[in-house]
């Protein structure tokens, strides 16, 4: 059974009781921030609280690992749209310790896909496609810090990034909310001791 029925029941009450009123804002981020972070459930409420970001203050992009793996992919496009169309002028890339993408192998993902009914023929066909590097596409990273650095570099080196755009890279602890700065404004920075 899916969650759809319960979600729609709740939604009807939410709309009828006008609970949406406290969420009204514009599409423009008040703090002019675009934030790329991981889809990890532990960060949903923790990350905005740890960064003092409230409703309407930032454009938030989430994906597995807070990773930019293609300079012309959807994540980079979203960052550029946030900058050019929605007024953001500062980019934050925030990975986290204990990320599920850390050490993830394509073999593990494909094995689970087979367990869920995906045929070997489908996987073989995709693996032989020259447009898809299955090993890279379904693999994670070894170091969250290095992953954040690489994503910051991808943004900073993009030919469509306007000059003067500040790009930061951070790693958050999903248990405490502590932020460690990996890259500040495009330059490596030693984290101050707290």
TrEMBL record:
Q: How is the cofactor bound?
A: Binds 1 zinc ion per subunit.
Cofactors that this protein relies on: Zn(2+)
- Gene3D superfamilies hit by this protein: Carbonic anhydrase
Metal-binding keyword on record: yes
Give the catalysed reaction(s), semicolon-separated.
hydrogencarbonate + H(+) = CO2 + H2O
* EC numbers: 4.2.1.1
Q: Does the keyword Protein transport apply?
A: no
The molecular function terms in GO held by this entry are: carbonate dehydratase activity; zinc ion binding
Per UniProt, Zn(2+) binds at 38, 40, 96, 99
Question: What family classification does the UniProt entry report for this protein?
Answer: Belongs to the beta-class carbonic anhydrase family.
**Can you say what this protein is called?**
carbonic anhydrase
The species this protein belongs to is Texcoconibacillus texcoconensis
Upper classification of the organism:
Bacteria, Bacillati, Bacillota, Bacilli, Bacillales
């Amino acid at each position: 059974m899916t969650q759809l029925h319960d979600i729609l029941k709740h939604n009807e009450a939410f709309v009828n009781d006008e609970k949406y009123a406290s969420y009204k804002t514009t599409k423009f981020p008040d703090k002019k921030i675009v934030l790329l972070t991981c889809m990890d459930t532990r960060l949903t409420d923790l990350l905005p609280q740890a960064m003092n970001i409230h409703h309407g203050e930032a454009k938030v992009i989430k994906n597995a690992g807070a990773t930019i793996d293609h300079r012309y992919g959807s994540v980079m496009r979203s960052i550029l749209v946030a900058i050019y169309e929605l007024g953001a002028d500062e980019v934050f890339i925030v990975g986290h310790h204990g990320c599920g993408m850390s050490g993830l192998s394509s073999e593990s993902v494909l094995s689970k896909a087979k367990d869920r009914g995906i045929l070997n023929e489908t996987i073989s066909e995709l693996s032989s496609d020259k447009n898809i590097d299955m090993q890279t596409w379904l693999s994670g990273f070894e170091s969250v810090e290095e992953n954040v650095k690489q994503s910051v570099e991808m943004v900073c080196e993009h030919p469509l990034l306007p000059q003067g755009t500040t790009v930061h890279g951070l790693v958050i602890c999903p248990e405490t909310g502590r932020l460690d700065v990996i890259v500040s404004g495009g330059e490596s920075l030693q984290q101050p001791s707290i």
